[in-house]
Amino acid sequence: MDFSVKKLASDAGVFFSRAVQFTEEKLGQAEKTELDAHFENLLARADSTKNWTEKIFRQTEVLLQPNPSARIEEFLYEKLDRKVPPRPTNGEILAQYMLEAAKDFGPGTPYGSTLIKVGDCQRRLGNAEREFLQTSAISFLTPLRNFLEGDWRTISKERRLLENRRLDLDACKARLKKAKAAEAKAACEKEATPDFQETRPRNYVLSASASALWTEEVDKAEQELRVAQTEFDRQAEITRLLLEGIGSTHMNHLRCLHEFVEAQAAYYNQCHQYMLELQKELGSSSKIFLWINSLFPPPCSHPKTFGANLAASVGLPGDPSSSEAVNSTSPIEAEALQIEEVQPPASGTRKAKVLYDYDAADTSELSLLADELITVYTVPGMDSDWLIGERGNQKGKVPVTYLELLS
């Protein structure tokens, strides 16, 4: 117990003296051993590497796991050295809801069957996301974390030790300087010729004794300075080697960054392929969607057209002119219309503004983009729900419900 108390008191004294010395250096009241420019550049590069690695690591965690509560939970599991329980991705949760809804609505219905297809695609997207998260965590996040928690902690420890060695060295320099000044003063007093006629022999003896004591103190301070300088040089070399290893760290992080980009590109490419397959599966239903749009057009479409379509679909009497237009041609006659041979009528054309995006179902139709202006006109024998649209050299049928005819 006594040894522990002494050690504690000694450590407290060293800490206090170093604090005083550090404060005096900051105030310019004490000399400070400066490191060379190359060493200072290594220190600045290491600090920059640590700061940016920490920021990139944190933001990558946010990218891979946007939920802060989930990140905190994973952090706690990691600190407790326990395995993180599996958590479904958002795509997998959405897929589960869609499949359950399809089961409730009926898998044989158009809506239910489409929910099954989309839900299966979302499930595959969720699995792809899970694989991407795992790959990124292993190939990118783990090396960054290992640097911050391993190499950087070692560098920080050696830098603190180097700073302590520097403070010890400066303290020894200050002690030697003080001892030399006292020795010179004592030597001057000793060289003064004593007046034996007076009562001064005692002062001469004291001066000689003090000079010898300060000479011994100078020798002791010089020895301590040599030891402190050796320890400082050795610690500076160790720290310099660690700091020069930052270049290898950059190369390692560069390789990990390439792996992260490759994993991200593979993930997005896989998602793109899944969506293309889903579009192909749903492509056969485009005719059904067009039929639904013709029965229940968007709110901005002309009410007269909507009423005629609804009346024709349920067999109710509507506007005679509209009914005649709807029944004037059959779907077969509309398909047989050769778009390339159609010419604008003599009565002229009109401008129309597109209200919604529209994807052409076949080569006879014209795809539309919302808010664009096109030229439209009708031809004899054509369904009243459709017009001929022209955009530059492109020509094709366009649905009336997607247009706003301009005067």
Please tell me about this protein's structure.
It is a single chain. The chain has 407 residues and is of the alpha+beta class. The chain contains eleven helices and five strands, in the order H-H-H-H-H-H-H-H-H-H-H-E-E-E-E-E. The chain has a five-stranded antiparallel beta sheet, with no helix packed on it. Strand 3 (386-391) and strand 4 (394-399) form a beta hairpin. It is elongated, with a radius of gyration of 43 Å. This is Endophilin-B1. It holds the Pfam family SH3_9. One of its GO terms (biological process) is apoptotic process. Residues 24-291 form the BAR domain.
What's the CATH H-level superfamily name of the largest domain?
Arfaptin homology (AH) domain/BAR domain
Kindly report the spatial arrangement of strands forming the biggest sheet: 4-3-2-1-5
- In terms of DSSP E residues, the strand content is 5-15%
Task: Give helix and strand order, one letter per element, not per position.
Answer: HHHHHHHHHHHEEEEE
Largest sheet: 5 strands, antiparallel
Q: What is the total domain count?
A: 2
Per CATH, the class of the largest domain reads Mainly Alpha
Separation of the first and last Cα atoms: 102 Å
Number of helical runs? Answer: 11
Whole-number radius of gyration? 43 Å
Q: Globular, elongated, flat, extended or rod-shaped: what is the shape?
A: elongated
Proportion in helices: 55-70%
Low-confidence stretches: 299-336
Please name the CATH topology of the largest domain. Answer: Substrate Binding Domain Of Dnak, Chain:A, Domain 2
Mean pLDDT: 79
> Would you count the extended β strands for me?
5
What structural class do the secondary elements suggest? Answer: alpha+beta
GO cellular component, one term: mitochondrial outer membrane
Coiled coil: 211-238
Protein name: Endophilin-B1
Subunit structure: Homodimer, and heterodimer with SH3GLB1.
